[in-house]
Write the C-alpha cells for this entry.
Amino acid sequence: MKIPLISDELDLLRSLVELDQNPQIIELGCGAAQLSRNLLDRFEGCEVSALEVDERQHAKNLLSPQPRLRFLRAGAQAIPFEAGHFHLALMLKSLHHVPLDLLAQALKEVHRVLRPNGLLYVSEPVFAGAHNEIMRLFHDEEQVRAAALLAAQQAVASGAWQQVSEVFFDTPVRYRDFADFEQRLIAITYLEHRLDAATLAAVRARFEQHMTPDGACFARPMRVNLLRKISP
C-alpha cells in the first residue's frame, strides 16, 4: 500500500477524531503549538491547554496569545489538572522527548486526566529515511523513539488503553539551504547541540547531497497511534 503524503497533520487528525465532540483538548510537549493554533481557528467549540517544559519556548508562546489557548510550563509526567478533565490528548513528536524512566508515568498521567473513553493521539517520527540519516549524525534518536513506541505498546497491553488505529504517512520537509536547516534543527532551544567542526562538516556534506535549485526536500516518515482510554 502506498504511504500517503500529508502536509497538514490536522487533516489526518480530523479524519480520525470528531473534533467537534472533543471540546477540551490538552497538547503535551506543544513546542509552538502550531497544530493546536490551527485547530482552534477551524473549530470554535474547542479549548486547548498546551504544556511545554522548555522555558524559552514557553516564554515565546506566552508572547503570542490566542483565544481559547492556555499555555502552561509542565511535562507529561506531572500534568497539573484534575482527573477526567480532557476529551482528547495530543502528543506530536513529543513522547520520545519524555525521559526514558518516566515514559510509563507520563502515559499514566495522560490516562488520569482523560475522561472515560477519552482519546490519545500520538504522532511520532519513524527512524528511517534520508532526513533521518542526516539527523542521526548529530542527534541519534533510535533508542528514544523505540522506547516511546514500546511504552505505548505496553500501555495497550496492560489493558489501560485500546488502540483505535495506527496510521503511517510521510510529511514533506523543505529547507531553503543548509543555514535554514541549521537554524531549525541544530540551533533549537530544547536541546543543546554543540557540534565540533568535523561533525558539522559531515552534516553539511550529507545535507548538500539533497540540494536542488528549489532547496532540499525530504519526505519524513511518521506513525500515528490513536488510543482510547479504558476505564478506570
Summary: The chain has a mean pLDDT of 95. DSSP finds eight helices and eight strands in the chain.
